[in-house]
Amino acid sequence: MFHSIKMNTIIIFAAALFSCKNDFDLPLYPTYEWTNPLCDTTLKVVWQKIISKDSSYGAARFFSENGHYIYKYVSDYDKEVKAGFFEFDGNNIHELWEIRPDVPNGKWVFYGFPSFSDFLLLKNKFIYSDGRTLYSYTYQGDLIWENKFAGVENKGNVNSFLSGFGNKVYISSRSGGSVHRRYLFEVDIDTGKERLLYTELEDNNFIGLFDPPVLYMHENDTIATFQIRKYSQIDSHNRADMVAFNISKKEIMWRVDSLDRYTMGSANPILIENNKLYYAGAFDIYCLDPFTGKLIWRQSFDDY
């Protein structure tokens, strides 16, 4: 009995001593206390429009650029897959056009629904990916170009999620086969031509794509910072890493592995504001120096 208790004590002590640590072992801010929401009861409906009758599983996004305000919706994945685009202002709303992806035998219906999950409005162009091809349209719905990433130099299918900066679009890809790699591409929005920026092997059976990067400038260099949310095929372990890649110099500026305290990471985009990088993890918000990756503070939203 004594031997069992002693061994358990040793194991607990060893686990505490050798547990995985990173550079983020700073004192936690106190758990955030939520305030009562303030409701504005003076709001009035200016206009409303029934977009779709089958919208319980739909998705919607709002875009704004150069005085254009665009609303996008996607119909249910178990119905006919389509996306509609409407322009609106404070007085009215009108339909611009809609997309109905090619679903030859129905097997892509489930995957077709989230294929519109991210859509860029950039330099008077609509740009989106269906997970196999990247498309660019005019405001009127005319196709400008398309880029079929699937299978190009064995780089696999592209991600449906995009980010944009200037006249460039950024999208990731993952290759299959015996050797798995992740890729980050830069695409010219005028021509649709891609340029490979960064690639890395998937190590230790951790699979996952690069998340869409956030772009910012540092001493005349363009920096792309992105999260890598990974999932282990062996023990179902998660990991969230973050990389800041200097596009101008073609080198990594900084990298932090196992960033999130809960290891899962978050699909929320990274925010750069006033020379600070804000990142939302599973239960924390992190503030980092965007030029060094050093943690400035971490705010917890639970009791740990």
Automatic annotation (TrEMBL):
SUPFAM superfamilies assigned: Quinoprotein alcohol dehydrogenase-like
Protein name (record): Uncharacterized protein
